[in-house]
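Hi everyone,

Forwarding the result from last night's run.
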Amino acid sequence: MDNPEVLGEVEVRFIQPYQARKPYACPGCNRDIPAGLGHVVVVPVTAPDLRRHWHRGCWEGRR
């Protein structure tokens, strides 16, 4: 989901590099977030199963 805020309130969690154990695809830029790279997880409060992992810069720079 490119804009989880359409679902309402979201919770944003920062994942420290040591916590990042798996690679993910960032919906903001469609590039990989490799294991070991700190990033954010965005969780819609009403739909936690739609959580997405974002590069921090992509999340902060989205429109």
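The helical segments are 56-61.

Cheers,
N.
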